[in-house]
Amino acid sequence: MTAGRKERRLAREVGGILRLGVIISGVTILLGLVPYLVRDGGRRADYHLFRGEPEAFRTAAGAVAWAAGAHPRGIMQLGVLFLLATPVARVVLCLAEFARERDRLYAGVTLVVLAALAWGLFGSG
């Protein structure tokens, strides 16, 4: 396979992952949004007192647990987690492809990008 073909194939795969991630995220958020609006959509917002996010939504495990319990806010939070995972999946795919092709330079750069993403997601807590 020529280098141009490999690049086009990788670009199609990366585009597919990004598309799929956004679709899955959007559908998941919508699945939580509809029951949330039905149940709480008519409630008047009170902006006089800042309450912040509940403790359960400050970790991925908490959001997944609430989503597993079919709580609408947990389901929407799970959709946001899917959206955050989408670029990470893209970088992992590129890393696997560069490693398979034994392209050490690009694999190394991609590994640095993956480390930066991991630091941004998990290291700042």
What does this structure look like?
- 77% of the residues lie in helices and 0% in strands.
- It is mainly alpha-helical.
- The protein has one domain (8-39, 53-123).
- Helix 1 runs antiparallel to helix 3, helix 2 (60-68) packs across helix 3 and helix 3 runs antiparallel to helix 4.
- It is elongated and about 60 Å long.
- The model has no long low-confidence stretch (mean pLDDT 88).
Relevant terms:
single chain, 4 helices, mainly alpha, 125 residues
Provide the helix percentage: over 70%
The end-to-end span amounts to 44 Å
The H/E string reads: HHHH
Which sheet architecture does the biggest sheet show? Answer: none
Write down the domain tally: 1
Shape: elongated
Q: Taking all residues together, what is the mean pLDDT?
A: 88
Strand content: under 5%
Radius of gyration from the CA trace? 19 Å
Structural class, by secondary structure, is: mainly alpha
Low-confidence stretches at least 5 residues in length (pLDDT < 50)? Answer: none
How many beta-strand runs?
0
What is the overall number of helices? Answer: 4
